[in-house]
Amino acid sequence: MGNNKLKQISINPKLIKLKKIIILILAIYFSTMLKAQQQLTKDQQEVHQTVINFFGALSNRDSVSLKNNCTADILLFEHGSTWNADTLILKAITLNTATDFKRINAFDFINTTVANNTAWATYNLQSEITRNGKQSSVQWMETVIATKEKQKWKIKVLHSTLIRRS
């Protein structure tokens, strides 16, 4: 009979842990790359631009531009209240008389879906706001429903959840 000897293999637990960490890092890297490479459709890009323009109008205290980016019957769900365009204009533009007012918005669009003439987009919004000599940073997670009217996307519903205010 042959001299069959079993060799004992010793596996270093640190090496196994290192391999797991490398696999995790690679998985995160490639999933990020896949997300970054997704191409947006023309409609998705236009919906994003409508949202950006809407908040740009708030930043510029421009009620005409604000109304141009939303439907006449827009509903906003903000802090547990239901607002319309007139309420938003009153609270964010008319009563905002600070001479040093400045608002800078940054968006991180999470998901945007378009089906015919309706779209819904979810995004994180961070705004840096200066008013009456005080600076604050506010973060929201928001979802809009937009409809296409005469070949232009307009916000019909905006639901806002406050994440953090500092």
Describe this structure in words.
There is one protein chain. It is built from four helices and six strands, in the order αααββαββββ. It has a six-stranded mixed β-sheet. Strand 4 and strand 5 form a beta hairpin. The model has no long low-confidence stretch (mean pLDDT 89).
Helix vs. strand class: alpha+beta
The radius of gyration is: 25 Å
Task: Give the count of helical stretches.
Answer: 4
Q: Describe the sheet with the most strands.
A: 6 strands, mixed
List keywords for this structure.
166 residues, alpha+beta, six-stranded mixed β-sheet, 42% strand
Brief overview, please?
With 166 residues, the protein is an alpha+beta fold. Helix content is 36%, strand content 42%.
